[in-house]
Write a structure and sequence with these properties.
The complex is a heterodimer of chains A (448) and B (753).
Chain A lengths: L3 E6 L4 E6 L8 H10 L2 H4 L5 E4 L2 E8 L2 E7 L5 H19 L4 H6 L1 H11 E2 L2 E2 L4 H4 L45 E14 L5 E15 L5 E6 L3 E3 L18 E3 L1 E4 L3 E2 L3 H4 L1 E4 L4 E10 L7 E9 L6 E10 L6 E10 L4 E8 L9 E6 L4 E10 L3 E10 L4 H7 L3 E8 L8 E7 L8 E15 L2
Parallel strand pairs in A: 8-26, 11-12
Antiparallel strand pairs in A: 1-2, 1-5, 3-4, 4-5, 6-7, 8-9, 9-16, 10-15, 10-25, 13-16, 14-15, 17-18, 18-23, 19-22, 19-24, 20-23, 21-22, 24-26
Chain B lengths: L2 H20 L5 H19 L8 H9 L5 H14 L4 H14 L5 H12 L7 H12 L4 H17 L1 H7 L1 H11 L3 H13 L9 H9 L6 H11 L7 H11 L8 H14 L4 H20 L3 H17 L1 H4 L14 H14 L5 H12 L4 H17 L6 H7 L6 H17 L4 H8 L10 H14 L6 H9 L7 H17 L1 H16 L4 H16 L1 H8 L15 H9 L4 H5 L10 H14 L16 H10 L2 H7 L4 H5 L5 H11 L1 H10 L15 H10 L12 H21 L3 E8 L2 E7 L7
Antiparallel strand pairs in B: 1-2
Chain lengths: 448, 753
């Protein structure tokens, strides 16, 4: 099935290489890398599956490495790509994170893992849990530069850097804990009239578990959760009409999840394997209010046809108890714009947390905030000088704008964890339980 | 890294290893030092530096610490990597491995069996078989799993060894009875590969397997679903039972499981059209959830299947068109696929909305997306005619002011006019506003010139626009030159006085052209015109006929063949697997050559399958006598002999188009004087031997016109092989991809034994 597996750095160096069948030239990684590197000439990003001289290359890109499988057979692309994704996940679980440096520092451990995951090109044992008994090398866990004891919320559970081996091997870092994160990514498109055209929330309930003895857990979601459009029974009894219900279009579940109590209590029961995984993925297109609105106004200068003023207004339409972090409003401007200067109309606290940046080469204006409180409104006044001509060119060439942000402890779909129960008959066993929410922009587009 | 430095490092490692081996004792420092050296070796192996010369030293050093598993694992990795290039030394490791395969620790037993079977050295098979046989009945499931895979490894080196020992029978029994699901899954793997699976699949077997499917790992579930997909239930009730049992597989978070289940559902219901539709309806949601996840690569594979299904049943997907709108952060390969899906599912209800969305992308700063969006609007205009505003949008793209958008729009408009000449009235005035100088890309320029030729009667400036390009005839790309010649000739019959000058320039330049196609076409036009202007008008500028289907479009038959291979690469590459997987004969042949060369002994050996350089390959293709045979064949008989339609084209080009070229070559071509056996007997090994031993008797280079090549190589060189077989020349191996194809053919004289 898989002829070779390798991990390449973004510069094309081979960091890990296993040849299973010996029916693909040894130097195939060079062929692969050249093809990926120069793909742009043919049109954009290299697709995850392509073929050169009868060898099929399948790859996934993760952070700073490429995981590649080669084959000559007519395999299932989903199977190989999922397997590569899984291998990336296993390395993360064992090394704390996946990066070129982490793989280099732990290359023997990675070889050990691979030995058990794939035999002769066929996937064998791929659960981080079950692999533990085969692994002898200890991980070298890289700590991020700014080390902090509280895991950063911004990146969801991936922000926790810890090896699954920590719970039973290394004494010092041992701490029983479980992270449950509701990570939602929102995609919105507003048309030129400011009306929301399409919107979707893609969410996932991520669990990262470091519990000794792997006790079962029970994870209860909103009682009024309705899974729409599915005709097979789930959801129907729960689709209470009215605005209260949390509506999901569809969802899928991890292998380990038992749905026995889902029908009646909206509770998922599972024995969480060690490591990180998505208990549930879902998507929803209903009932959600976009957290931000952006408007633009262009004022002509009657006395100087080559000058105009562009107002960009941003409104944060969520509760004032929450705040978005790292917000960026990216506004492409037409090539006629020769000069511009900006003033902020409102001051955000703390002062200086707002800035703008005119990236002339990319022809885009980026308006940045470190933090935006819910319920606030901000205006950027942009004085524009046009090279030749008319504000009409500005109107035509402006946008589409897009927003990037993260809102911690905010959940666009209102999906919530009612309780997280660890089913272990030991009143003294009180591991740390982290239930966190985060909403991020995926594609937040405002057309003009 | 320089060669000097490598040699230095190698020497150093060798010395260190020797030093460590001569130090006796079991101090932990010694072990740590050895581990460090091995780490270094493995690291160099990974970057592709040949470490095989350390074989003896590595063995000695590691064996002294036989109980250290970390060291053992590294040693085994090393041995498996270099076993093929060091078969003699590998023999020395057999003892160690065999001993380990009887260890008390199941992990070591498993590790030993896995490594033993991974050596890939044919004459060691006799040592493997006993170890595997014991492993298959091991107490521990880990050892059994490994041993089952070992059977496959041996099978691929030495098939008779597996058949003679009856191991496949053991596996069949294990598949039914082994309590460990992964053991059973590995049995499926091996039996599938050995072709012994089909006979096992009956109702009882399927029921038992599906009932325990949740015990299997997610990967093994895919295998089970795939294996079961060949089963044909005897009645519809059974189909429903199977689908009910597996319905929750559609809500699995692993897309591989979902896709495997979908394939099974679709294939089970092929003979039940109404249910088949329901299945398509049912799988929409789960597939949509899979493409919404935060993982582009797996989403890509699912989207490719969406595309296939959307082509088969566009109506089922037309209501969820917003799911295929592009998102800002998606890579180009996702966006490209989404646009193609949008074009495929556009109908009278959603076409307007889709075209509106696509128009937004045309303004995108990414030129790839902009072009693809224009192309998609063009497709929609072709397919959905009753919706107003689509053609106008396409025309509007001409005014966006970006050269690549204009170029793509012109190409699309030309295609649209080919199918709907009536639209010319609407299109012509917008098109006539651009000038050929604005179009840099040959394809767009040729399309524009084509429009001028066909509809020049209603474009006032057409003759002068053509004349301007004709003035620089030689500087244009071949496609533009060909289009220019034809367009000018066509327009000449409509507006003779204005076009005469341009046509004169074109004909003069064409007759002197180095491109055969243009040269011949110019000559033909010239002679036609000399013979009779009326006759020329009839041939060159007949009334335009609307094209109903474009050759690039896939036929429904082809799509069905791809659908049969649902959830495979065929869907991604959009061609049946026969077009992109080589026949196994090639693999064994090239592997054989690799073995002979030795790993890394000669740099060129890394090329793997390439036996010949590209020029030699061209000669090989000429040598086989295809061209002379075709040229000598009687033109009347050949099309009748062949059922496939592209053939007349092939002949036409060779006989008509390439007449001048062929004339000197034909007499030189050897007439087949040999009488060849219709069924020669030659094994690949014999062929390989002869290939190495015989001197080339004759080398020849022949030119084929591109369309002839296309025909010859279509369907994995099928046509070529068929025609050669008709001449009693048979393909031993063939392969390659455009532009370099290789064929190894053989024939046997009647006299030969």
């Amino acid at each position: 099935m898989i002829s070779q597996f390798y991990i390449l750095s973004l510069r094309g160096d081979t960091i890990i290489l296993r040849d299973y069948l010996g029916n693909v030239p040894k130097r195939s990684s060079e062929v692969f890398f050249r093809k990926v590197k120069f793909w742009d000439k043919e049109g954009g990003d290299a697709p995850p599956v392509f073929s050169v001289d009868g060898v099929h290359y399948l790859h996934v890109r993760d952070a700073s490495v490429l995981l590649v499988a080669t084959t000559r057979e007519n395999v299932s692309p989903s199977l190989i790509l999922e397997l590569l994704k899984r291998i990336a996940g296993i390395i993360k679980d064992y090394c704390g994170l996946l990066s070129e440096e982490a793989v280099r520092k732990n290359f023997l451990l990675v070889y050990e893992l691979l030995d058990e995951v794939i035999d002769y090109g066929y996937p064998q044992n791929s659960s981080s849990e079950a692999l533990k008994e085969f692994v002898l090398n200890d991980p070298t866990v890289l700590r991020p530069r700014n080390k902090s004891s509280v895991p950063s919320i911004g990146k969801g559970p991936t922000g926790v850097i810890k090896s699954v081996l920590d719970t039973n091997r290394t004494g010092g870092a041992k701490r029983d804990e479980i992270f449950v994160d509701i990570v939602e990514k929102i995609s919105c498109t507003f048309n030129a009239g400011g009306i929301l055209q399409t919107s979707q929330v893609d969410g996932s309930v991520q669990v990262k578990s470091y519990l000794t003895g792997n006790p079962a857990i029970s994870l209860a979601l909103n009682e009024n959760l309705a899974i729409g459009r599915r005709e097979d029974g789930h959801g129907h009894s729960h689709s209470i009409p009215g605005a209260e219900a949390v509506m999901l279009d569809d969802c899928n579940f991890h292998e380990s999840v038992s749905l026995d109590r889902f029908e009646t209590e909206r509770a998922l029961t599972l024995v969480p394997p060690d490591g990180e995984f998505a208990v549930m993925n879902y998507r929803s297109t209903s009932n959600f209010k976009p957290p931000f609105k952006v408007y633009t106004i262009i004022e002509d200068d009657p006395h100087a046809p080559a000058k105009a003023v562009l107002f960009i207004k941003l409104r944060a339409e969520f509760a004032d108890s929450k705040a978005a972090a790292g917000l960026e409003v990216v506004c492409p401007l037409p090539h006629e714009v020769s000069r511009l200067s900006c003033e902020h109309h409102t001051e955000v606290k703390p002062s200086g947390s707002q800035s703008w940046d005119w990236q002339e080469r990319a022809r885009r204006l980026v308006w940045k905030f470190k933090r935006v409180q819910g319920g606030t409104e901000h205006v950027l006044k942009v004085r524009v000088t046009l090279e030749d001509g008319h504000t009409a060119a500005l109107k035509r060439g402006l946008g589409p704008m897009n927003l990037q942000f993260t809102i911690p402890m905010y959940c666009a779909s209102r999906l919530a964890v009612r309780y997280l129960q660890i089913m272990k008959n030991d009143p003294k066993y009180q591991p740390y339980r982290w239930v966190r929410y985060v909403t991020m922009s995926n594609s937040y587009v405002i057309r003009t | 890294m320089g060669g000097e430095k490598v040699r230095g490092e190698l020497g150093e490692i060798k010395t260190t290893l020797a030093g460590l081996s001569s130090t006796h004792g079991r101090a932990p420092e010694l072990l740590a030092a050895k581990r460090e050296v091995f780490k270094k070796i493995v690291n160099y192996m990974t970057v592709g530096i040949d470490m095989s010369s350390l074989f003896m030293q590595a063995m000695t050093a590691a064996v002294q610490h036989g109980d250290d598993i970390v060291l053992k694992k590294m040693l085994y990795l090393y041995i498996c990597t270099y076993a093929q290039s060091n078969p003699d030394l590998t023999l020395l490791t057999i003892n160690l491995l065999t001993k380990d395969s009887k260890d008390t620790d199941p992990h070591i037993r498993g590790l030993a069996i896995r490594s033993l079977c991974s050596l890939r050295v044919a004459n060691l098979v006799e040592y493997l078989v006993p170890a595997i046989s014991v492993g298959l009945i091991d107490q521990h499931s880990y050892v059994r799993r490994t041993a089952v895979m070992g059977v496959l490894k041996v099978y691929n080196i030495d098939k008779p060894a597996v058949h003679n020992t009856g191991m496949l029978g053991t596996l069949k029994e294990m598949l039914q009875n082994d309590p460990d699901a992964q053991v059973a899954a590995n049995c499926i793997t091996v039996l599938e590969k050995a072709g012994d699976m089909k006979g096992m699949i009956d109702r009882a077997f399927v029921v038992r397997l599906l009932n325990r499917i949740k015990e299997f790992s997610e990967w093994a579930q895919c295998q089970v679903l795939e294996a079961v997909s060949v089963y044909r239930p005897s009645n519809e009730g059974e189909v429903y039972d199977m689908m009910n049992l597996l319905d929750d597989r559609l809500t699995h978070s692993n897309s591989a499981v979902v896709m495997a289940a979908i394939k099974l559902f679709l294939h089970l219901t092929l003979a039940m059209p109404a249910t088949h539709q329901q299945v398509l309806e049912r799988v929409k949601d789960p597939m949509q959830t899979l493409i919404s996840r935060d993982h582009f690569e797996t989403a890509y594979a699912v989207l490719a299947h969406f595309h296939l299904l959307a082509q088969r049943a566009p109506i089922l997907f037309s209501s969820i068109y917003t799911a295929f709108f592009c998102r800002m952060n998606e890579p180009t390969y996702i966006k490209q696929l989404k646009l193609e899906i949008l074009a495929a599912i556009a109908d009278e209800h959603n076409a307007y909305d889709i075209a509106t969305e696509l128009t937004e992308y045309v303004g995108d700063i990414d030129p790839h997306l902009a072009r693809d969006a224009v192309r998609a609007v063009g497709r929609i205009a072709l397919e959905v005619q009753d919706v107003g505003g689509i053609v106008e949008r396409l025309l509007g793209f001409l005014e966006v002011g970006k050269p690549y958008v204009t170029a793509e729009a012109v190409t699309q408009i030309a295609d649209l006019l080919r199918r709907f000449p009536d639209l010319a009235e609407i299109c012509v005035s917008s098109v006539s506003n651009i000038s050929p100088q604005d179009l840099e890309e040959p394809e767009a320029k040729a399309a524009f010139i084509w429009i001028l030729g066909e509809f020049g009667h209603s474009i006032q400036d057409a003759p002068y626009l053509l004349e301007r390009v004709a003035g620089k005839f030689e500087g244009e790309a071949p496609a533009v030159r060909a289009a220019l010649l034809t367009a000018t000739a066509k327009l000449f019959f409509k507006r003779p006085p204005e076009c005469q000058r341009a046509l004169g320039m074109c004909l003069q330049a064409a007759v002197a052209d180095s491109d055969m196609l243009i040269h011949d076409r110019g000559l033909m036009y010239l002679r036609l015109l000399q013979y009779s202007v009326n006759e020329a008008a009839r041939v060159i500028a007949p009334p335009m006929e609307a094209v109903t289907a474009f050759a690039e479009e896939q036929s429904p038959e082809l799509r069905d063949r791809i659908f049969d291979e649902f959830n495979t690469l065929a869907v991604i590459f959009r061609e049946p697997s026969t077009a992109f997987t080589r026949r196994t004969t090639v693999d064994t042949l090239s592997n054989g050559f690799n073995d002979v060369d030795g790993e890394g002994a000669v740099p060129a050996a890394d090329e793997g399958s390439s036996l010949l350089t590209d020029t030699e390959q061209a000669e090989a293709l000429g040598q086989d006598g295809l061209t002379p045979r075709l040229a000598n064949g009687s033109p009347g008989a050949a099309p009748a002999a062949s059922a496939s339609t592209p053939l007349p084209d092939l002949l036409g080009d060779l006989l008509g188009g390439g007449g001048d070229l062929m004339a000197p070559a034909a007499p030189a071509a050897p007439q087949p004087v040999l009488s060849l056996r219709p069924h020669p007997h030659l094994t690949p090994q014999e062929f390989q031997g002869k290939w190495g031993a015989l001197q080339p008797a004759k080398k020849e280079s022949l030119m084929l016109a591109p369309p002839s090549i296309a025909t010859a190589v279509a369907g994995g060189l099928q046509e070529l092989n068929r025609r050669m077989a008709a001449a009693s020349l048979f393909t031993m191996a063939s392969g390659g991809a455009a532009p370099a194809f290789r064929c190894y053919l053989h024939g046997q004289t009647e006299a030969a034994e």
